[in-house]
Amino acid sequence: MLSILNSVSSLQAENALANTTTxxxxxxxxxxxxxxxxxxxxxxxxxxxxxxxxxxxxxxNQSSQNASEGVGMLQTADxxxxxxxxxxxxxxxxxxxxxxxxxSATQATALQTEYAxxxxxxxxxxxxxxxxxxxxxxxxxxxFESDGTTTSTISDxxxxxxxxxxxxxxxxxxxxxxxxxxxxxxxxxxxxxTVAADRGTIGATVNQLTASQSVEGAxxxxxxxxxxxxxxxxxxxxxxxxxxxxxxxxxxxAALSQSNQIQQNVLKLLQ
Length: 271
Description:
two-stranded antiparallel ribbon; CATH 1.20.1330.10; 4 strands; 271 residues; 72% helix; 5 helices
C-alpha cells in the first residue's frame, strides 16, 4: 500500500540507523578511552565491581607505603644501635684495662673520662636520632595496613635508649678503681647483650614488614588484572564491532534514502 501520511519503511530505517549510530559512537568512545565501561549505563554491576577493586588497590598501595616508612624508621634505629655497640665495645676495652692493677691515678682518671664520654654519646644517640622529624627511640607507633575492607597493625615501637637504661653506672667514677671497673665490666657485657636483643627484635619486625609488602605487591597485581578484565575494552573486538556498525550505518543510510524515494513515487501517481 502506498501512503503519504505515514511511511513505515522510513520509520523502520530511521530507527535502525539511529541504533547503529549509537552503537558506533559507543565503539568510538571505547577506542578513545580504552575502557569497556565508561558510565553506569554501559555495565552498572561491572562498574560497581571495578570501582570496588580500585578502592582495594589504592588502600593496599598506601599500606605498602606505610610499611616502607616503618622499615625506614626501624633501619634508622638499627643503624644507631650499631653505633652504640661500637661504643660499648670500646667501653669493654676501657673497663678491662681499668680492672688491671698498677694504673696511676692519672691513667685511671683518663679511662673514666673516656667512659663518661661514651655514656654521654649513648644518651645523645637515644635523644637525637629521628626519622622524618620523629624521635626513633622511645617511640610507640605502629604500621597501619588495610585492603579497603579489613585492617591490621604491626607494631614498630622501639625502646628508649640511654646509658642508665642499659644498666650502666652513670653516677660516680666506677673505672677509677679496679673493683669498680670489674663490676662495671659485667654491666657493660649485659648492655651489649641488651642492644643485640633489641637489634634482633627490630630485624624481626623489618622482616615482617618486608614480607607484608611482598604480599601486598602480589595482591595489587592480581586485583589490577581483575579490574582490567572488567573495565578495559577488548580493542580487537571493539574494532570488529566498529567495522560492522560502520557498514550497517552506510547501508542504513542507503535504506533510508530508498524508503524516502518510495514516498516520492506517490506523487507520480498524481501527475
